[in-house]
Amino acid sequence: MRGAVLYAPGDVRVEERPDPVIVEPTDAIIRLSATCVCGSDLWPYRGVEKLDGAAPMGHEYVGVVEEVGGQVTTIRPGQFVVGSFWASDNTCEICRAGYQSGCVHRVLMGSIGTQSELARIPLADGTLVATPGMPDADLVPSLLAASDVLGTGWFGAVAAAAGPGKTVVVVGDGAVGLCGILAAGQLGAERVIAMSRHAPRQELARRFGATDIVTERGDEGVARIKELTGGLGAHSVIEAVGTQESMTQAIRSTRPGGHVGFVGVSHDVALQGDELFFSLVHLHGGPAPVRQYLPELIGLICDRKIDPGQVFDLTLPLDQAAEGYRAMDERRAIKALLLP
Ligand SMILES: [Zn+2]
Questions:
Q1: H or E element, residue 68
Q2: Which family, according to the similarity comment (predicted)?
Q3: pTM of this prediction?
Q4: For residue 52, what pLDDT is reported?
């Protein structure tokens, strides 16, 4: 099969890789209908995250089940399925509490690599959710978004306690931040303030339900949020970048008693204990338990209530994955969809 492999920073190649086979009786093999490049793939692509030899890439996926192992009972060949970037059993105590990304048996899909024609999905019964029948082709990008960016933005909004009567600030205008805006609206937020200085992303933010746009950053950005919230700060802030600047901005934009949902993959972020102490904010975040939200998100997508697939503003054949990485790295594209 064809699959993307990162050899060195800036060097992604699509090449022949061995076809996946059933390894554990709980595995499934899927044929991907679509896959994509994640903002988090840019960390190793930019050399910020160290590479330990050539690495298969990709952790977002939707597709049709080809084969299942002998112990798989609910997932069947021929089903169209969506799964998260963590494979999880969905039965352990952590999963049952809704934290499948912390499953005691979890497997990181990025270690398998789903920017490919086929992929092995561990713990298929727990990991995969089948759609009701074969989805219309125009729904596939939105279902793919559910696999990571929508589920992650959703968790960010839930962790930030977005809801009726709340003012929600979203720090970060990448695909996750944009999906966080959409989620905040769906959860009933009264006002959603997007922090973005990029015109096409501001426009998508508005389409996803942002009521205000703030272009300032850092201390000026915080001051602007205070100005818009009667000097108090927001009730809920979604942090969707993962840098020191964005995390600081998120905490300082939150009112005492408010919630920060941090879902940007954290890189070299250090929090000042005394500032945290006196901020009186709730902090919750981490790798999103996307699996928890998949049934609900698939329902909203299949009923055409939400259209998160709009985050894909570039579609390429899988063989041109390298251009997808370049376009996202240079911020020419929000998110690149790859067709195997
Ligand atoms: Zn589990």
A1: strand 62-68
A2: Belongs to the zinc-containing alcohol dehydrogenase family.
A3: 0.96
A4: 87
Q: Which pLDDT score, from 0 to 100, does residue 305 have?
A: 98
| Ligand 1 centre distance from Cα of residue 149 (Å) | 21
The CA 125 to ligand 1 mean position distance, Å, reads 11
CA 259 to ligand 1 center in whole angstroms: 26
CATH topology of domain 150-285: Rossmann fold (3.40.50)
* Closest residue by Cα to residue 173 from 254, 249, 75: 249
SS3 99: coil
Listed residues: CB within 5 A of ion ligand 1: 88-89, 92, 95, 103
Q: The tokens of 168 are what?
A: 């929600």
Per-residue tokens: 42: 């840019």
Flag residues of the chain having pLDDT under 70: none
**What span, in angstroms and rounded, lies between the C-alpha atoms of 93 and 91?**
7
| Chain region(s) in the chain for CATH 3.90.180.10 | 2-148+289-339
